[in-house]
Specification:
This protein is α+β, with helices and mostly antiparallel strands. Among the domains are: 18-239, no CATH class; 363-419, no CATH class. The protein is built from 17 helices and seven strands. The strands form two sheets. The protein has a five-stranded antiparallel sheet. Strands 6-7 form a two-stranded antiparallel sheet.
Length: 427
C-alpha cells in the first residue's frame, strides 16, 4: 500500500538507515503479535460495508453523501494509525497520505457522472462558459502545484535519491496528489443528483458506472488488504507459533503450509504484497541487503519465514502470555518485561519463583529442605546464627538435598540431618 525500505545484515534490520539503532530480527513481528486487533477488525468491516454502499447506485443522495464522508473518515483514521507504525518511521507523511487522495481523484474524474449531467457535457463540449470555468480551475491548480514542486525540490535536495527513475515516478505520483488537492478540496466535493439513481440513466451510462464502481472497490481494497495483513498475524501466525512452541515443530510447519496454501481464503498465509531486494556497500565497508516492500504484510510474511529459517522464533511468555524474542536460548520460557501485578519484578523472576514453587510442591525432599532452610535463616535475624555459619550450613544442606534427590539417602535421613542441632550459637 505504502512502500518502505529495510536494510538488513547479521539478523539485524534498520528502518531509518544504518546510523539509527538496529532492531533484532523478529522484533517488529513480535510488536504485531502483541497488538490488540479489535479496532483493526472494525475498520476492515466498516470499509468493506461503506465500499459496497458507494459501489452500488441504489441508495438515495443523502445516503450516498454519508458513504463518501464515512470512507474519507475511515481512510484518514487508518492512515493516521499507519503513520505511527515502526516500519513507517522513516517514510514521509506525503507518501503515507497519498492513498487518501485517490478517492478524491476517483470522485473528481467522475463528477459529471455523479451530477447526472453526462449528457449535457457530452452534447456541448465547446461550451465557452465551461471552458472559462476550467481555465480558472487550471490556473488555481497550477499555482498550487508550483508550490508543491518547490517543496518537493527542497526535500529532494536533502534526500538526494539514488535511483532517478524511481524518484521521477514518485514525483509524477505526487503531482497527482497536488492535482487532486486542487480539484477536490474536501468531501463531499459536489452536489449529487437524483438522476444518478434513475434506472434509465444507469443503463445509458452502464460502462462508465462500471468503471467508477471498479475504481471505488480498488481503492477500498488497498485499505482492506493493509488491515487484513495485520489481522492475519493474529488469526494465522499467532496460533501457529503457539503450536510450534508447544508441539511437534515439523508437524506444525506442515499444517501451516497445507492449510493456508491450499485454500483461497481471506486469511491465506502469503500476503498480496511484493518485495524487491538489492545489495549495497555501507560506509563501514560491509554489505547490506536493501529490500523495498510494497506492503506491510509482505514484510511481516518475510520476517516470519526468515525467523523459522534461522531458528529464532518469537515465543509466548509462560507468565504474561505476550510474545517476545528469546535472547539467552531457544527454550527460554519467560520474557524480561515487568510481570503483571508486580511493581519491581520481571516475568523471568516471577517465573523462576513459580517454577521452583511447583517443584517444591511435587517433591517431599525439597519440602523438607525448604522448611529447614527457612528455620535456619530465621536464626540470623534472631541472633542465634551468623551469616557465615548459615553459609556453611546451607552448603552442606544443599549437598544432602541433592543426595536425597539422587536416591543416595532416604527422606528420613535427610530430615534427621537437616533438623539436628548443628550450629545454633553465635561464633
Amino acid at each position: 500500500m505504502v512502500p518502505f525500505t529495510v536494510r538488513e545484515r547479521d539478523q539485524q534490520i534498520w528502518l531509518k538507515g544504518v546510523d539509527a539503532p538496529p532492531l533484532e530480527r523478529g522484533e517488529v513481528l513480535t510488536y504485531y503479535l502483541n497488538m490488540d486487533m479489535r479496532q483493526l477488525r472494525k475498520w476492515s468491516n466498516d470499509i468493506r460495508h461503506t465500499a459496497v454502499g458507494l459501489e452500488a447506485f441504489h441508495s438515495n443522495v443523502g445516503k450516498y453523501k454519508e458513504h463518501i464522508n464515512t470512507m474519507y473518515r475511515l481512510q484518514h483514521e487508518v492512515l493516521s494509525f499507519l503513520k505511527q507504525q515502526p516500519v513507517y518511521a522513516g517514510v514521509s507523511e506525503d507518501d503515507i497520505y497519498y492513498v487518501e487522495y485517490e478517492l478524491q481523484m476517483i470522485l473528481s474524474q467522475n463528477e459529471s457522472l455523479l451530477r447526472g449531467s453526462c449528457d449535457s457535457i457530452e452534447e456541448d463540449p465547446n461550451d465557452q462558459s465551461l471552458q472559462e470555468d476550467w481555465d480558472a480551475l487550471y490556473e488555481e491548480m497550477t499555482r498550487k502545484f508550483a508550490e508543491f514542486q518547490q517543496k518537493s525540490k527542497s526535500q529532494d535536495d536533502v534526500n538526494k535519491p539514488k535511483h532517478r527513475t524511481a524518484a521521477k515516478n514518485k514525483k509524477k505520483e505526487m503531482s497527482e496528489i497536488a492535482i487532486a488537492k486542487a480539484l477536490v478540496p474536501s468531501p463531499p466535493c459536489f452536489e449529487l443528483s437524483e438522476a444518478v439513481f434513475d434506472r434509465q440513466y444507469q443503463l445509458k451510462h452502464e460502462d462508465r458506472i462500471h468503471d467508477f464502481n471498479s475504481a471505488i472497490m480498488s481503492n477500498a481494497l488497498q485499505f482492506e488488504a493493509l488491515l487484513d495483513d495485520l489481522i492475519r498475524v493474529k488469526e494465522v501466525y499467532l496460533p501457529f507459533l503457539k503450536e510450534y512452541q508447544s508441539g511437534d515443530k515439523q508437524k506444525a510447519l506442515q499444517q501451516l503450509f497445507e492449510q493456508y496454501y491450499s485454500f483461497d481464503n481471506r486469511f491465506q498465509l502469503n500476503s498480496g504484497g511484493q518485495m524487491k531486494a538489492i545489495y549495497s556497500l555501507g560506509e563501514d565497508g560491509k554489505i547490506y541487503r536493501e529490500t523495498e516492500y510494497s506492503s506491510l504484510g509482505s514484510f511481516l510474511y518475510t520476517e516470519l519465514m526468515t525467523c523459522l529459517q534461522e531458528n529464532k522464533v518469537p515465543r509466548c511468555c509462560a507468565n504474561c502470555g505476550r510474545f517476545f524474542m528469546p535472547r539467552g536460548g531457544y527454550d527460554v520460557e519467560y520474557c524480561d518485561n515487568p510481570a503483571p501485578g508486580e511493581t519491581d519484578k520481571t516475568c523471568k523472576e516471577v517465573g523462576a519463583r513459580n517454577t521452583f514453587a511447583r517443584r517444591v510442591k511435587d517433591s517431599p525432599a525439597l519440602q523438607i529442605f525448604q522448611r529447614a532452610y527457612k528455620t535456619h535463616h530465621a536464626r540470623i535475624r534472631s541472633g542465634h546464627m551468623t551469616k557465615e555459619s548459615f553459609a556453611i550450613w546451607s552448603a552442606r544442606a544443599m549437598d544432602l538435598r541433592d543426595a536425597c534427590l539422587d536416591g543416595k539417602i532416604t527422606l528420613e535421613e535427610l530430615e534427621a540431618e537437616l533438623t539436628k542441632d548443628l550450629i545454633y550459637k553465635k561464633g
